[in-house]
Specification:
The complex is a heterodimer of chains A (about 600) and B (about 260). Chain A has about 600 residues and is of the alpha+beta class. Chain A is built from eleven helices and 32 strands. Chain B folds into three domains: about 110 residues, Tetratricopeptide repeat domain (Serine Threonine Protein Phosphatase 5, Tetratricopeptide repeat); about 60 residues; about 60 residues, SH3 Domains (SH3 type barrels). Chain B is built from nine helices and eight strands. The chains are: A alpha+beta (about 600), B alpha+beta (about 260). At the A-B interface, β32 and α5 of A face α1, α2, β1, α4 and α6 of B.
Amino acid sequence: MLRKIGVNTGIIFLLFIIGVTRLYANTSSVDVSLDAPRVVSLDEQFRVVYSVNTSPDNFISPDFIGFNVLAGPSTSTRSSVQIINGQRTESFQYSYTFILQAKDIGKFNIPSATAVVKGKHYSSQSKTIEVVAASNNKRESAADALEVSNDDIFLRLELNKSRVVVGEPILATLKLYTRVPISGFEDVRFPSFDGFWSQEVDTPQNIEFIRESVDGKIYEAALLRRYVLFPQKSGQLSIDAAEIVTLLRIRSQRSSSRTLLDDFFDSYQTIRKRVSSKRGNVIVSELPSGAPITFSGAVGDFRLSAKLSSNNVVANEAITLSVTIDGAGNMNMIESPVFDLPSGFEVYQTKVIDRTTKGVRGFSGSKVFETPIIPRAPGEYIIPELKFSYYDVSKRGYVTLTTEALKLEVSGSSSDITSSQSGVVSVNRQGVRTIAQDIRFIHSKANLFNYRGYFFVGSTFFFLIFISIILCFIFIDRYLAKVKARKSDVVGIKNRRANKVAKLRLKQTKELMLQRKVVYFYEELYRALIGYISDKYNVSISDLSKDRLSEILTEKKINEELIISILDVIERCEMARFAPVDDIDNMEDIYNLSVELISNLERR
Amino acid sequence: MKVYSYLLILFFVVSGVKGISQENSRVEKEDALVIWSDANNRYIEGDYQSSLELYYSLVESDYISASLFYNIANCYYKQGNISKAILYYERSLKLDPSNRDVINNLSIVKLRTTDTIDELPEFFIKTWVRNFNYKFNSNTWSYISLIFLTLSLTLFVLFRFSIKSGVRKFYFFSSVILLCITFLFLGFAVNQKINYNRQDAAIIMQPVVTLRSTPSNSGTTLFILHEGTKINIIENLGEWSRVEIADGRQGWIKKSDIEII
């Protein structure tokens, strides 16, 4: 009787839940669902409900193997109409309920059932049920005895990994297992996760209990919290225990005055019980050495891409460089890869668009780094490739991702060239900034090679050349001086030659004079003079009378004085031939005069 | 005829001297240029140590030039050896005091030395003259002065054998001026040689050096200098040198602590 009431209320509750979940279902499609507990004990009577969201024409019951069908199928219908903000939703539920009991311990299959709607067959899913040994007696007694052991209720912190590297995400699940009814919680203390960067993933608003079997016993399990943990340091890290004070609703011990009513109305009493989880231990190993320079602590599995909002832009117009990293891991730690822009760009602050979601693998999704840049000068630029390194947990090694180099064409800005409306050309002028100071580059030209300590200026070679130049010029000077001296004495040369000729002609005469042969002397002198003149002016000696002589000499423009003295000498010679005067002075005198006369003639 | 034969003998003597001097060099000029460009490439790649070794092999083969010392200094600077870098910049400046690259780099490297000494500014004409002096190296000045000597003597001969008095005057004065220039340039060449052979400046190579009042370790400590500081040597006495720093202070320093430029 008592159980019947419990079952009825259970059905109502169940239907309500199903009703809520079905509320938004599309009524036009037929759906057959199966509802059954996950874990049952051997002697437990449990219900299996197949629900159809329309009224089926026929229902084909399944064959339950390994179960005793105690009752069913019993049918029930439920319909609801809801109007929320003018929207009308209808739901309809047609349920077939079986009450089963397991025959043996183990895992059994609840088969699928088929509903026929308008001639079509719709099947539900099948479900596996775990049957565990009966422990009903103990549970009853425990509840009765006001003693709740640690076996009846406990907290458990489950970690999906126990050995990780720094930065590798761990999923920690805090669950409460109970076999006694709980009426509430007090003084909940969650672990502080020292040494980890923790992030709550699941924070259920309503605590739902789901049957689970632990060591062959059936518990009602509830998920309290789920965390993603990122170890921040290496070593053995422990997670301190979670603690919770539960309010348990326990049937009170039967009082001594046992009345009839006691059988119908059990009296319950609430007791407090503190439960705590065990400390968790995680061994965190250091990241292996040999990390690339671009590594900044990212652990997980990532992809990298970069693009410009436009590859063709006018100078002074802003463009956006977007770097996208997507994947899973400790995305919260990832920062924008550093990029080296060519000079002539103005770079503004990077905006981070975080599209990550917390989950089992840490953060997954994508992170976009948008950097506005303004090219200030036209030209073709190449934005060098970006590099991003991370530690790949599955490959146990570092991976470096590289984007392609981006090409950017900047055309001349129109505002630079054309003048503004006022007619004033404004160009943005600025001083040249020094970015860094370094020594100048080495000399590449080897033009100054020299031998150590060799100086031309003091060497013997130098002195030899110096002296030889001076000697050369002294020699040249001497030579030129001689040449000049000869050139300047032309008259002297003529005189000397004329004298020479005269003396040659009068050579014999001079000998005769020294021998004092007077007659021969004058004869010879006469002949020499006449001979000279005839040779000189090309006339025969026989033609030369005194008159003829003076005529010829006048013709040759010899001055008169000279002619007279020539004629005088000739006359004196003729006279002396006939009347010789032995006078040595006379002879010398006339000789010298003749030399002079011939010389004078010769000079002309 | 006699003079011609003298000149002929002179020519043979000169070419003989030249031949001897060429035989003395251990590395041929072509090989030296290969080593030079190899060392430069190593420097570009950032392998300063092997670059330095190659430059040193040139120095050991008695090759010197301002550029060679400049490159060695750059190598030392890139390796962080400030005192050696300054030493070689100064050696480079000794060969070419007006080289702007060397002056620039030396001023950058000097920023990393500890000692700051106020140096008296140089009279600007002195700087000009020196800069002009080092426009060419000593040997080039020697050649130029020989050319000017020839020109001057030619003009003098022309003066002696020309007749018109105006032309004669011109020849005479230009000859005299050219002779003056010859001796000026010869002076430049000699000046460079004298400066090169001077051994009166040094760089402190030890990180910290104490200057004492007497040439012994027991002398009173006058002041302390740090590596890279330039000093002038006044006199030497055994293991010690009396030195003067740029502001005029003097002291005794161990020879092993300094290296002469």
